[in-house]
Amino acid sequence: SLPLILGSLLEPLASLVDSAFVGQLRTEWLAGLALGAMILSSFSWVFNFLIHVSTESISRSAATQKSNEKVAHTQIALMVSVFIGILGAFIMWLGEPILFKLMGVKENLSIYVEDYFHVRLIGHPLLILYGTMISILRGFGKVKTCLLLLLSTVIINALVTAYLLFLQDWGLKRAA
């Protein structure tokens, strides 16, 4: 269970890395990142059931040793996550003015929130798919593989974000 616990602790670190790096540069960027990330993570949390359902259905089918059932559950989980990821990104894109208003985005910060939010919306379906893939691997009992993937993701995110923000001076939009 230690790899599972460590993997669960690593998941939120990816966002903390972005906040820690951006916060060292400009407070407006940090505000834009915080508000944009809040909207995206709130929306992703609504679909957190994908992770739990995928893990449970895959582990149950893995226990029965029926390969057709394992393949079917895996395919359904992946297709549903892609569909929900794309649909969610589209809904957030359409509802952006309402979401920004609900979050209290001030006019002077809206450009920074938009910069971060628009780029992250492009990757949102992939984030939902990634979470589902991790849950599928957990369902198959590949907990150490999940830990290595999550650790790799956090390290790559930290290195790329640091490079783009500090060495290339690309700004919030490009670092997102």
What is the structure about, briefly put?
The chain is mostly helical. The chain contains nine helices and no strands.
Keywords:
single chain, 176 residues, mainly alpha, 9 helices
Question: Can you give a write-up of this model?
Answer:
By secondary structure, the chain is mainly alpha-helical. It has helices spanning 2-10, 13-23, 27-46, 49-64, 67-94, 96-103, 107-139, 143-167, 171-175. Helix 2 packs antiparallel against helix 3. The radius of gyration is 18 Å and the shape is globular. The mean pLDDT is 84.
Topology:
Layout: H1 2-10, H2 13-23, H3 27-46, H4 49-64, H5 67-94, H6 96-103, H7 107-139, H8 143-167, H9 171-175
Helix pairs in contact: 1-8, 2-3, 2-8, 3-7, 4-5, 4-7, 5-7, 7-8
Question: What characteristic shape results from the CA principal axes?
Answer: globular
State the distance separating the first and last CA atoms.
32 Å
Calculate Rg over CA atoms: 18 Å
Order of helices and strands: HHHHHHHHH
Number of helices: 9
Number of strands: 0
Judged by helices, strands and strand pairing, the structural class is mainly alpha
Average pLDDT reading: 84
| Largest sheet, strands/sense/barrel | none
